[in-house]
Design goal:
With 164 residues, the chain is mainly alpha-helical. The chain is built from nine helices and no strands. 34% of the residues are buried.
Length: 164
């Protein structure tokens, strides 16, 4: 939350001490936050063995780089391959500035009994502030109101294609 240099140092140390997908993903996220897109791509190729996770985080790099056409291509391909992947779909949509899709997926999740908990996790993983509008998620909005937590949360990185 604001100390990107320390986060990068700790993530690099962590991936050397305890290599694995989760720490590699965190390293990629921190590299992206630093604008080190090529290094992030190399880390994805070298360290992330899970094809789904690798593709998703290549989408993060693409969205953060701000190329709308490439990001749109990624998002279309991602959703074609994962048509009911609303959890990661919201995140990918928010990263790439696809507000209507993010809201539509969030509304579907919000209808489930565990929707508000899931939407909280999605918000944390996105790192983009508000990945959807509260108007799209009345159950989540009610739980948020009860909690007294602020909305939107502070983003951990900026996404040039996301305008909300």
């Amino acid at each position: 939350m604001g100390d990107k240099d320390t986060a990068l140092r700790v993530a690099r140390e962590g991936t050397e001490i305890a290599p694995g997908t989760w720490l590699s993903v965190e390293l990629v996220r921190i590299l992206v936050a630093h604008g080190q897109h090529e290094q992030a791509r190399r880390e994805i190729d070298d360290r992330i063995q899970d094809a789904f996770v690798a593709e998703l985080f290549k989408g993060l790099v693409t969205a953060h780089a701000g190329n709308q056409a490439r990001s749109d291509q990624f998002f279309a391909k991602f959703m074609a391959e994962n048509p009911t992947g609303y959890y990661w779909g919201i995140i990918a949509a928010a990263w790439g500035g696809h507000k209507e899709e993010a809201n539509r997926f969030a509304a579907i999740i919000d209808e489930h009994h565990f929707g508000p908990v899931t939407l909280t996790q999605i918000t944390q993983w996105c790192g983009c502030g508000a990945p959807f509008d509260l108007d799209a998620t009345p159950n989540f909005a009610a739980k948020l109101e009860e909690s007294g937590l602020p909305w939107p949360p502070q983003p951990t990185m900026e996404f040039p294609l996301k305008d909300w």
